[in-house]
Amino acid sequence: MNPALETLMLAFSGEGRVAAPERALFLGAEAHPELRLWPDLTGWQALKPLAVAWDKAGLRREHVVPAEKWPVVMVLPGKSRDAILSEFAMARHHLAPGGTLVAAMPNTTGAGRFEKELSKATGGITSIQKNKCRVFFAVDDGSWNETLFAEWSALGELKKIPGTDYTTQAGIFSSERIDPGSQLLIEHLPGDLSGNLADPGSGWGFLSSEALKRFPKIKRIDLFDSDARALDCARLNLAGEDTRTGFHWHDVTTGLPGTYDAILMNPPFHDGRTTDVDLGKAFLTSAADSLRKGGRLFLVANRQLPYEAVLDSTRLTWNRITEDKTYKLIFAQKR
Ligand SMILES: C[S@@+](CC[C@H](N)C(=O)[O-])C[C@H]1O[C@@H](n2cnc3c(N)ncnc32)[C@H](O)[C@@H]1O
Prior knowledge:
335 residues, alpha/beta, 7-stranded mixed β-sheet
């Protein structure tokens, strides 16, 4: 179980802690057995595998947080500074007067620093450290610094990547710039790209958008991402391509629900918290399974990632097309 979640739950056990609430909202919701006993809990989770786990635990989830206030709002924030602060602001926005805001984070993502940040807006804060994580909570006494929360809220608004028309949002992959690995891939794609394509781990849609602009013989691209916020940005970035695109909030490690002529891919190799080469390997397996015979895979990856061995174990022949200091391009074909 996520140690930050274990630590979060400590805020509700013992003297001087937060009383188990009648109603609560959980942003970045992750399932914990004790939460099933809470009478009225609403969860919000942008990441598909965690949302599925929440649903499986029989807990209620909203895809978009309703315009309501709750006496307790809990948050397990993301990793980047802007995403974390904007999630504090989102939690504050949904907190009823006199309510308690509870946040938990691993020390490795700066729990101490962000506790201090939150206390700049809330004043008095209580903190518990355990499991190499910290949970901290503050009670709204009417004196919170709403100007600071408004600044943090703005950090989470949609924004453009400078010099482009691409829309992104704090917290999603490569929200500040076009990923150089993906740029390298686009520059090396062959001119005969056509038919039905998939873009697993599409993020905000760079690969699909550029491919559709450059290769008119592409009939359709299905974009798959586990992060609902990234997919929402992709929808905006591919607006106008409605007839040639499909958007899927989907965990690619569970396979792809289609058969494709070609797959474009810059696979993830961490799950948002830890480096996980197995995640990238699972992407390769899903891609290999869903290519038609003769179908082609166009892959970019960090040079050190051991993907060639995975390709050897599938029915794909592959070539390393090029590499630079950081990335390698591997093109493969299904036998
Ligand atoms: C390296 S990024 C590439 C993004 C995009 N293709 C680009 O080139 O900018 C990998 C993407 O995979 C997504 N991802 C991570 N785990 C996933 C999973 N299990 N299923 C689907 N997508 C996932 C991440 O949200 C991220 O957007």
